[in-house]
Specification:
- It is a single chain.
- The protein is of the alpha+beta class.
- The chain has a domain of 122 residues: Metallo-beta-lactamase, Chain A (4-Layer Sandwich), CATH 3.60.15.
- The longest helix is centred in the middle third of the chain and has 12 residues.
- The radius of gyration is 18 Å and the shape is globular.
């Protein structure tokens, strides 16, 4: 019962699609790299960028998740950097740093281009790909990655209950 054709979602978006939330006009921007399905939502002077970038003092999203790619993320960030400099960027989440013991959620294109420790305007694609790939190899796989992928692919719905009435997520085991 695990659909893989997108029919489990109410709507699938493509780059440039437009829709409304109440009176707000929204344009979809494809920003893959962290995962192949990452998108951003452009509303007026704001861009909601998910996990594409973090605050400039923390850097960029990892690219070692299924279908992620550092070169693709670089291209997506360059697309964001083409927006006007005062465009407000809203993050999906944030991490504290050794110099910042609080969370932030908003930055701008200009701030990212000038100060992002991984991918500012002076970083070329090859250098970013090398840094990102090397860094990703040092990161642990998140504990809930496999279960979250299964639930995400089902549009937030759990699999059908088993005979005992319970729902189970099945985790692949590599025995080789």
């Amino acid at each position: 019962d695990f659909k893989r054709n997108g029919s489990q979602f109410d709507r699938l978006f493509d780059d440039g699609d437009k829709f409304q939330i109440g009176t707000l006009n929204v344009t979809v921007m494809s920003v893959p790299g962290h995962t192949p399905a990452c998108i951003a939502y452009h509303i007026s002077d704001a861009l909601f960028i998910g996990d594409t970038l973090f605050m400039p003092d923390y850097g960029s999203a990892r690219c070692d998740f299924p279908g992620g790619d550092a070169g693709t993320l670089y291209d997506s960030v360059q697309k964001i950097y083409q927006m006007p400099g005062n465009t407000r960027l809203f993050l999906c989440h944030d991490y504290k740093t050794k110099d910042r013991n609080y969370h932030k959620w908003e930055t701008t294109v200009d701030e990212q281009k000038g100060k992002n420790i991984h991918i500012n305007s002076s970083v070329d694609k090859r250098s970013f790909m090398e840094m990102r790939t090397k860094r990703d190899k040092t990161l642990k796989i998140p504990k809930l990655l496999l279960p979250s992928v299964q639930v995400n692919m089902r549009a937030g719905k759990l699999p059908k209950a088993e005979d005992n009435g319970k729902h189970y997520l099945k985790i692949p085991i590599n025995t080789a």
